[in-house]
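Chain A, query sequence.
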Amino acid sequence: MRAPLIAAMTVMGLGTMVSVGASLMSTMEGKRPQDAPKQAPAGVPPTSPPVVPPASDAPSTPAAPPTPAVGEAPPAAAPAAPAQPADDDPLPAQIPNLSDAGLPVVRLTLGAEPFDLELAATDAAITKGLSGRDRVRRHRGMLFVMPYSRELGFWMVDCLVPIDIAYVNEQGIVTAVHTMKTEPPQRADESRGAYEVRLPRYPSGAKARYAIELAAGEFARLGIAKGSEIKVDWQGVNTVARAARVAGSKR
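Chain A, predicted structure.
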């Protein structure tokens, strides 16, 4: 993305205890009250209740799941947790001094995730932005730092991929978030002025000093929206930006 350089520079048991319910029954037919009680045959012990062996410490065998009735659908398996996408382009352990485009790189935390952002502070870097890039790498992007706060508006001049932009004021509050779409390229029979005039502008909605550009859909994924606070050492960012402007002016 590129910003126009005009006045409106517009981011989840053992065995089963069986209950003996059958009663020991004696017929005692013909027994009369005056009859003496009958003696048990020699060698036969008196009848006693069955003895239940004590429970063992051995682990019990788990019960098998119930078999569904005919015509009944089996219970559904618990859904598997969604797989997290692998980061095939991790950030380096050490922050690079300069990007491939020759811009300073700052590492910021956005939505609890680290991002390496190219810092655009000079007129040339702000004007160029991410124009001509065929992708915005994961956990990368660009941070635009303006000399002072004002209402901003960016457009998609010569941009090949959609880009997210968030505008941030000097207090670190997001004033607006947009997903900027790619536009048809300049036609052979179309003047540069006519091409730029037809491109939509994406405004900051209020005064802002910073703009952050990431791959399309990243701010929604991170939960960053209008009114969010981005906690960054903005004074440190300003210091790097001033140094970049000074270096740029000496070229």
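Residues 234-249 form the longest helix (16 residues). The helical segments are 123-128, 192-197, 218-222, 234-249.
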